[in-house]
User: What shape does this take?
Amino acid sequence: MAAVIKPKRSGTASSVPTTSNLADGELAINSADKKIYIRSGTSIITVAVGEVTTSEISSSTLVVESEGISSNDNDSTIPTSAATKDFVDSTVSAMAIALG
Assistant: This one.
């Protein structure tokens, strides 16, 4: 028989667990907000979001063409289509020059 896993859960909008609510590594689910949280040490981290709204994305999250993708090589930024196109174009051009 399969084991049933029951993480802590809430159906109240904007309800976020605190470190006193969760043990380290324990999950919590907010079904109203469609978010999954985990306690990591002394922090509560949002690990999944069912729907992202524009209010949840700050302008510092976006990488614009003038900033370049290579200078923002991390897991916390999102390149715009212009930045992606510029990166691909410059990489293809560099490969073409290298291959002669």
Notes: The chain has a mean pLDDT of 77. Residues 8-54 form one domain. The two ends are 63 Å apart (CA to CA).
